Amino acid sequence: MEQPIQQVEPAQPAQPAQPAQPAQPAQPVAPVIQKSLSPVPQPERCERPLYLTFDTGHMEIAPLVDDVLKRQNIRATFFLANERTRTGGSSLDDVWAPWWKKLSEQGHVFASHTYDHVYWQADLPDGKFRVRASAGPLEGKSQIWSAGDYCRELVRPVARFTEMTGKQMLPFFRAAGGRTSPALLKAAAECGFTHVGWSPAGFLGDELSSEQYPNQVLLDRALRNIRTGDILLAHLGIWSRKDPWAPAVLEPLIIGLKKKGFCFATIDTHPAYRALVQSPELKQ
Q1: Positive or negative, the Cα torsion across 266, 267, 272, 277?
Q2: Of the N and C termini of the chain, which has fewer Cβ atoms inside 10 Å?
Q3: What phi and psi, each to the nearest 5 degrees, are found at residue 144?
Q4: What's residue 46's pLDDT?
């Protein structure tokens, strides 16, 4: 995840798009949870679904997220990029491969977030794009890419995920920062990928300044505004936020939403996306 952006762009509505081994750092340690929260049972039939999604990040809170999801019997959707981690590696390296495999066996689902967390910046003539990666060897450098270049970047997490888990990703992607253009979405669709954004109320605010948006404010806002069918967005660690969001907000949010009658489902069951799950194989 790139370094903090003080002005956060409005969240995009979640509408379907037109169609050398790394050094192995010490295993990450999950933050301490201040108090134990009792799970609220997930209803057998999900009539007021929400779709909880996570993008990768510095991964420090990933074990905590796993614990909360298991305790609350939640299946989530993860969008994977190979981002820098607190332990000096990257989120798709060999240290994290067993963790992703474990999640895949627990029933979570996965999709691409571009391999080097590549931001679209502008459309250019001849169907090309200006992009900038926030991870990888070209971190922070603008590049000119063709549609084919962008498709190859979308496929890289797919290949790595299969290598780590033996399983397939969904034919979906989330652009870094949610930044897209009609031309970019068309290019992605031509190689089998449909974009998944998030609902306005589903922007959970873990990217925002903790001084201006304390955890309690974010929790109260989400519980007040989230509605049936919303796609929720959070991350597995944000470098810029001083008061981490997940330990304080994630489990109380899930419990509060369940008490309001909501339930949780993965993005492949969303009415806007479920028909696309059986799409042709992604083009390599």
Answers
A1: negative
A2: C
A3: -105, 120
A4: 83
How far, in Å, are 6, 52, 173 from residue 217 at the CA level?
Answer: 18, 19, 30
The span from the CA of 82 to the CA of 124, in Å, is: 26
Distance separating alpha carbons of residues 44 and 276, to the nearest angstrom: 25
Question: Can you say whether the dihedral through the CA atoms of 94, 99, 105, 108 is positive or negative?
Answer: negative
Assess whether pLDDT exceeds 50 at residue 34.
no
For residues 39 and 67, give the distance between their C-alpha atoms in angstroms, rounded to a whole number: 11
Is the pLDDT at 29 greater than 70? The verdict is no
pLDDT, tens digit (0-9, with 9 covering 90-100), for 135-184: 999 999 999 999 999 999 999 999 999 999 999 999 999 999 999 999 99
Residue 15: CB atoms within 10 Å = 12
3 phi/psi in degrees, rounded to 5:
-65, 160
Residue positions counted in the chain: 284
Which amino acid type is present at position 122? Answer: A
Residue scoring higher pLDDT (245 or 33): 245
Comparing CA positions, the residue from 194, 193, 182 lying closest to residue 151 is 193
Q: What is the pLDDT of residue 244?
A: 85
* Pairing label, strands 128-133, 109-112: unpaired
Neighbouring residues of 192: CB distance < 8 A, sequence distance ≥ 6: 171, 279, 280, 281, 282, 283
Which band of pLDDT confidence, cut at 50, 70 and 90, is reported for residue 122? very high
Strand duo 77-80 + 109-112: pairing = parallel
SS3 label, residue 18? coil
Q: What's the N-to-C CA distance of the chain in angstroms?
A: 25
* Phi, psi values for residue 114, rounded to 5°: 70, 145
Distance CA 120, CA 175 (A): 8
Angle at 181 between CA 171 and CA 162, to 5 degrees: 20
